[in-house]
Design brief:
homodimer; 309 residues; alpha+beta; Ribosomal Protein S5, domain 2; Alpha-Beta Plaits; 7-stranded mixed beta sheet; 4-stranded antiparallel beta sheet; 12 strands; globular
């Protein structure tokens, strides 16, 4: 049936410390690589080119669940073949499921002639998140599709705001442990102190103002979380040590990526981000814990499409 | 001792719906008029030119309490005469005490040759707020001194951020009832649901982004408060009716000014703001409640000083 496209679907960092459930940003690395084409055969064929042994049944695969929602909205019979080469390890906390779900629907939309808006694509892709974590959250999906830092002001009704951001370097370390999103969510207290909530919305307001105004100091001062991090960070080895040394080395701040276990730190320049990476590695080397690190920047474009060769 | 200055100290609207305890903005009207000069006699002399019968003992007067804090920091013997003509009715919920406290210290600072930063002046003026309400809050003081919309990201340590704002018209109605700040505060629940807090910080992030980006629709969508308004609005007659009709007439949104009883509404243009004012007046006329209204704009300069004639 002709056109075949290649999809680069980036990792994303949800929450951004003080923006639990509402903020997220896309990075340049890592990213999943997918190939997609329309097929004469109706339905969805998923082929995995990686070693993660993810389900190929569309009903059980997050990309499949997202595609099925798009196909239902499309309303006409159509078939897709989707080849997935995941580079973003599932369970790493940097939006692995979102990259698959968002990449699939953005690719399908391009193949169908761009019938759907970004907001509609987010809604389709949220079906993948629902399959992965039980919750239709958009704080990874939205930055993956829109790029940059996105605010999900509201999920029902969906209201996505793309923020203006200055240049920021991002250091990510993914310790080789498993933290299930459902576990990270179940340990949260469902009631919070009003005084702590006030601190939190003071900080998110400061973070948004800092991003919009390009005020790095303000961004750094606002990267505080008194509500979620104290509970969730317990699940992540050496979290406090990594945060402390990163800030001593000049990082603006950072915290848990999504529900973990990855940790991210923001810096204004590459050499600081590099020192932070080395210091993070040394800490996990010392305790004998395996890891992957990424030194990257905020990706303001989101998913990238190209004609497959 | 020579120079005598005139101080125009504006009313302010704290909280701004979704920014409880952290946001506030200054308006052009109403404003207090004060005259101030350095005297040979040491200490503070306060003269009231209005009919509010506020204390003239500096220890009991909010402007006096603020001035005393400044004089302590100044460290050298000095005397001030402060003549106050309040136009902002005490207890109206539009920062009457803040206008006195902030006006006094901004005036004194000018007379002393501008020794203190705006941030230091906020700290001095917060002593007036402590006297008035028992709490050293800055969400009226900061916009009064800085002008525009200010974010108090944190009180301890003090961190004030002036936001960029598009043109906004403000309609305020002050029903002639008394709501004590201490009462309005005591009815608040000290614990909140995490899911409601998330909505609140989604909204404040949306409001800050909307102000910075000049996106009126986003400002309007973000002016929601699920935590404070449902409790406090009970104290304000016809609150829901006023809010409903204002939005039907095209106001972006609004809510309780500070801890009330004043209600404010934001509009993008004067004719909408005027229709809102008339509709508010009709509602209180119908129930036979006295009121004052103001149709004004956001005041990005804050306190205005001039040489007294």
């Amino acid at each position: 049936m002709g056109k075949k496209i290649t999809i680069h679907s980036p990792a994303t960092v949800a929450n951004m410390v003080c923006g639990f459930d509402v903020l997220g940003f896309a990075v340049h690395e890592p990213y999943d690589i997918m190939h997609m084409e329309i097929t004469e055969e109706l339905g969805i064929v998923i082929v995995n080119e990686d070693d993660f042994n993810l389900p190929t049944d569309p009903l059980q695969n997050v990309a499949g669940a997202a595609l099925l929602a798009l196909m239902e909205a499309y309303g006409k019979p159509v078939g897709f073949k989707l080849t997935i080469n995941k580079q973003i390890k599932p369970g790493s906390g940097v939006g692995s499921s979102a990259a698959s779900s968002a990449g699939a629907v953005v690719g399908a939309n391009a193949l169908l002639g761009n019938l759907f808006s970004n907001e509609e694509l987010v809604k389709f892709a949220m079906n993948g998140e629902k399959l992965a974590s039980g919750v239709k959250h958009a704080d990874n999906i939205a930055p993956c599709i829109y790029g940059g830092v996105t605010l999900i002001r509201s999920v029902f009704p969906l209201d996505i705001v793309k923020l203006n951001v200055p240049d920021l370097y991002v250091t990510i370390i993914h310790p080789q442990i498993e933290v299930k999103t459902s576990d990270a969510r179940s340990i949260l207290k469902q009631q919070v102190q009003l005084k702590d909530a006030i601190k939190q919305w003071g900080n998110i307001a400061g973070l948004v103002a800092g991003l919009e105004q390009g005020d790095y100091d303000l961004i750094g001062r606002s990267l505080e979380d008194f509500l979620i991090e104290p509970t969730r960070s317990i699940l992540i080895p050496a979290f406090e040590a990594i945060k402390k040394v990163s800030k001593e080395l000049g990082a603006l701040g950072g915290g848990i990526s999504g529900s973990g276990p990855s940790i991210f730190m923001l810096s204004t320049n590459e050499s600081t981000a590099k020192s932070v990476e080395l210091a993070m590695q040394q800490i996990y080397d010392k305790i004998g814990l395996g890891y992957h690190t990424y030194l990257t920047t905020i990706n303001t474009s989101g998913i990238l499409l190209s004609e497959a060769s």
